[in-house]
Amino acid sequence: MALTLTCPICGKRNGYEFRYGGEEKGPRPEEEGMTPESWCEYVHLNECKAGVQEEWWFHRDGCGSWFKTFRDTTTNLEQPTPAREE
Amino acid sequence: MFGKSKPMWGERKKLKSSYDVVLIGGGLHSLATAYYLAKEQGITDVAIIEKNYIGYGGAGRNTAIVRANQRTQYNVPLYKEALDLWPVLTKELDYNLMFNNCGNLNLMHSEAAMKAARMTIATAQFHGVESHLIDAKEAKELVPALNISEDITYPIHGAMFHPPGGVVRHDAVVWGLAKGAAKLGVHIHQQTEATGINTRNGKVTGVVTDKGTINCKQVLVSAGGYSASLIHGFLGIKLPISVLTIQAMVTQPLKPLLNHVVSSGAYHCYANQTLKGEIATGAHMDQWPNYTTLNTAHYIKHQAEALSEFLPALRGLRFMRIWGGLADMTPDMAPIMDGNEQIEGFFMDCGWGYFGFKSCSAVGKYMAQFMATNECPDMLRPFNLKRYQEHKLMGETAALVNYTPDN
Question: What backbone phi and psi angles, to 5 degrees, belong to B265?
Fold first, then answer.
């Protein structure tokens, strides 16, 4: 299915305007105490979810902003942000 | 009449509560591993668990191209052996795999690409694989339909010609290996979904399926594009993989026109003429991970533009069928084969991207050896998961066409 994404600045746009930026993996590891394993994990390792995942996107052919969104990888459809667990 | 036919790989077997080895995924890597486990290692108490039906995934969705013109010293010998195995397997399985070694022609569109091809050819020749560099005129002699004029988006500077490659009927390989494995005692359970892997004290104890739990000491996950998601879901092991949909299509049938597999990195396109006369073509990957296996208007248009530029005789043709499959891409474009490292008895064979088909025969042989002896064969050693931590990535990104979500 064709992909559309909602840029926080430009609104809903054709997916080809964007560049995929990877799975959301939390903050970049601190340099201090960093091991090859933790750096490898941050740079390379993925969960490859067949389902809804949180991910980064870059509006390459638009306003140039980076943002996070939830998307179902089995349908290419954006999903509402899940309610935060308390 | 329908429903009564028996599959050629024999009677449907009852799912036992225990096997020596369980292979998750009913694709070519599982089928080949099962076949060689039974044939060469004497391990016949083997079950293949497949959620849909054998050959449903990448095994039935590729464009049937085989070749051994990869880039690095680790990859070339593996693919060479796979290539050499097609005629052997055709005989051994007593099943016509329709291997047509028509040769591969990889078009180069710049001096820089020609230089890169020279290095790839040197590697191939070092490993005894026939491969040579030819200029645009020689390419035109091989494929008269090629447009070698200067007046196209990416003019053809020359090509890498690899005569031993070609195409193999991919469905026949599925059926042939299934037949061969079943004959040796392997149980193939279709419509059986693996839902978990049981472990105790760091050892595999069984596989959970929707038809019950199977006890086993060894399990291999070789489920093509789904491997990474399954391995993370079952065992929490993350892999350096991105799963992308790769698209392909065939045109209406034509008279014989294309005598070789032709591919172009610059045009992001490969094409060959099937024995039925269709031009089978593809190469496009979605630029973001997804499991849809759908085609997009964007790429159908691109494919039409690319083909009609470098093979102008195809202008005005209609695409008859389109399809998509999954490619599990790694950062260094080389697969991950590993076992007993994270969990005793757990093996994985994944990250094959878009070249899992061409390697299946040789990989099955070595994975079977690995599982039977619990010792990684030298051939597979460089492909372990640790290489990403140890910064020993392979140079396969320098091979012909490179796709990642970053393209």
Answer: -70, -40
Which tokens belong to B138? Answer: 């020689």
Residues of B with Cβ-Cβ distance to A76 under 8 angstroms: 290, 292
Q: Give me the count of residues in chain B.
A: 407
> By the CB < 8 Å criterion, does A36 face chain B?
yes
Rg (CA), chain A: 15
Q: pLDDT over 70 for what percent of chain B?
A: 97
Q: What is the pLDDT of residues B186-203, one digit of tens each?
A: 999 999 999 999 999 999
3-state secondary structure string across A7-72? ECCCEEEEHHHCEEEEECCCCCCCCCCCCHHHHHHHHCCECCCCCEEEEEEECCCCCCCEEEEEEE
Specify the pLDDT at position B407: 38
**What pLDDT is recorded for position B214?**
98
Q: pLDDT at position B3, please?
A: 66
Q: Which residue of A lies nearest to B239 if distances are taken between CA atoms?
A: A45
CB contact under 8 A, B238 and A49: no
> Which run of H or of E encompasses B369?
helix B356-373
Residues A46 and B361: their CA atoms lie apart, in Å, by: 28
A4 phi/psi in degrees, rounded to 5: -125, 150
Task: Check B290 against A22: CB less than 8 A apart.
Answer: no
Element (H, E) at B125: helix B111-126
Contact assignment for A15 to B288 by CB distance below 8 Å: yes
As a whole number of angstroms, the distance between CA B184 and CA B180 comes to: 7
Which segments within B125-202 are labelled E, that is strand? Answer: 132-135, 158-162, 166-167, 187-189, 194-200
Is the Cβ–Cβ distance between A44 and A36 less than 8 Å?
Answer: no
Nearest Cα of chain A lies from the Cα of B62 at a distance, in angstroms, of 20
Please write the tens of the pLDDT for every residue from B213-261.
Answer: 999 999 999 999 999 999 999 999 999 999 999 999 999 999 999 999 9
d(CA B192, CA B389): 35
Q: Rounded CA gap, A57 and B406, in Å?
A: 11
**Crossing angle of the two packed helices B170-183 and B28-40, in degrees rounded to 10:** 30
